[in-house]
Design goal:
53% helix, single chain, alpha+beta, PH-domain like
Length: 159
């Protein structure tokens, strides 16, 4: 079995992940501020504010700084002629082999933040599920998409 490609996510993916989490936590902060306003106006208790502020701090530390680094360090993929191997996980690690004969199609996607950093994701669709490789430079993602398409087509013609 020939190994074609062993890769990890691009370093810029950490920035995109963290910006996304900062946006989510910013919305959470706005909800806390809105509750404080209503609570002071209606003379409600401020206990939910203290609880949600504690959760916000935990979320900021965990999901904005710790989890992205661990996800980045633990994600890798290898492309072989007959299969794609994807290893990922933060707490529980999974290692998935996707046989080329099972690949139905390959998609390339990129949201606004990913486009700003010239990143894209490759989705490998099988009958059972979709496997996503996020955080690749757009050129690398396009090359991976083309190579996956070629390998999946070659296997279909061999059958």
């Amino acid at each position: 079995m020939n190994r074609e490609l062993t890769k990890r996510l691009h370093q810029d993916y950490l920035k995109v992940y963290r910006i996304t989490e900062l946006i989510v936590n910013g919305i959470f902060l706005l909800l806390i501020i809105a509750y404080v306003g209503v609570a002071l106006w209606q003379d409600w208790t401020l206990i939910p504010v203290w609880i949600s502020t504690g959760l916000l701090i935990i979320s900021l530390i965990g999901f904005t700084w710790v989890f992205p680094r661990v996800k980045y360090a633990r994600f890798k993929y290898e492309l072989f002629e007959e299969e794609l191997e994807i290893e990922s996980g933060i707490i529980f690690t999974s290692n998935v082999l996707v046989p080329m004969v099972r690949v139905q199609h390959v998609e390339l996607g990129s949201g606004p933040l990913m486009r700003k950093f010239d990143l894209a994701s490759v989705s490998v669709v099988t009958a059972a599920t979709t496997h996503v490789i996020e955080g690749l430079k757009k050129d690398e993602a396009e090359a991976l998409k083309r190579r996956l398409g070629q390998l999946a087509r070659v296997d279909e013609q061999d059958e």
